[in-house]
Amino acid sequence: MEIICYSCGRGENPENTIVGIEHCQTVNPNWRIEMDIQITRDEKLVLFHDYRTKRITGEDKQINDLSLKEVKQLNAGYHFKANDQYIYRSNPIQIPELETVFKIFPDTQLVLDIHTDNLLATTKLIALIEKYSSADKIIIVSQYDRIIKALKAKKPHWKYGAPTNEAKNMIYSSFLYLDSFFPIKSNILLLPQMAGKIKVLTKRVVNHAKKRNKLLWTWVHEGEAVKNVDSKTELLQMKEIGADGVFTDHPKKLLSEIQ
User: Fold this and answer.
1) Domain boundaries in the chain?
2) I need a surface site. Which of 10, 120, 189, 245 has the fewest CB within 10 A?
């Protein structure tokens, strides 16, 4: 089973940061690292999840309205706590460029989650991957169907996670026993075990993925907050369901339990 460090292991280091990537690599260099991508006003790709910056940096700005220089003035660790201390408030860390990640970690297996619906991000992403990395080390995902569609049109042989509508159509059709009419076109189906009070990973959904030789990557719960796999017990539950990969916020903790 593949283990993916969600948001660069956000439970143990500030999410989407170089220090987080370094930590994940130290825990296990063979585990994939998932990171979120936004685009700045001056068309640079940066590691960031939200459209607004307040949850992470303490300053309420629209990240797409900022230049790269302005983004780098924000503190990516402002709200991160360790031992009940905000350890990065007196020692701020920057929001990194994706290009910097490729330069420092050229051989790392990555999951790039495109969190902007700006199609310009697809052109920029292709250019960076072709310049710095090998496409077979990267899996691209996005909630935005048009982002994945645009990338597939230019790079059909790269690896993709199923975008929102593709995944929803397959799930809803499985409840109606019509899933054969909604094949999974992407390489990987990414789904939570539960969404609110609804069980998503039913036997039909899992079997649908398996019969079509698609990978199934999972997490525990999707709601106001995402709950990932952070214990051996949760890992074994996902293995029993039939997951091929799981997302974790706490890579060091999970490794200590499964060794």
Assistant:
1) 161-259
2) 120
